Amino acid sequence: MTPVLYPALRRLLDDGAQLVEVLPAGEYTEMHLPGAVNIPLKILDAATTAGLDPARPVIVYCWDAL
């Protein structure tokens, strides 16, 4: 795992990285980054990530105000 600041995130996304939000669906619906897909952490496994392209980097994020 590597923390990524916004400028690097923007470059990664521009180069085709996939963005995954891991909060529950309700929180994803409330607010998420454009282009992000939702795979809640509690169900994150091989089956739920099967739709991700294994040839492209994956950026996983969680926006939680705790």
Structural classification: alpha/beta
Helix fraction bin: 10-25%
- Treating each run of at least 4 consecutive H or I residues as one helix, how many helices? 2
Order of helices and strands: HEHEE
**Widest β-sheet, arrangement of strands:** 2-1-3
Distance from N terminus to C terminus (CA atoms, Å) equals 21 Å
Describe the structure in your own words.
- The chain is α/β, with parallel strands linked by helices.
- It is built from two helices and three strands.
- A three-stranded parallel β-sheet has the order 2-1-3, with no helix packed on it.
- Strand 1 (18-21), helix 2 and strand 2 form a beta-alpha-beta unit.
- The radius of gyration is 12 Å and the shape is globular.
- The two termini are 21 Å apart.
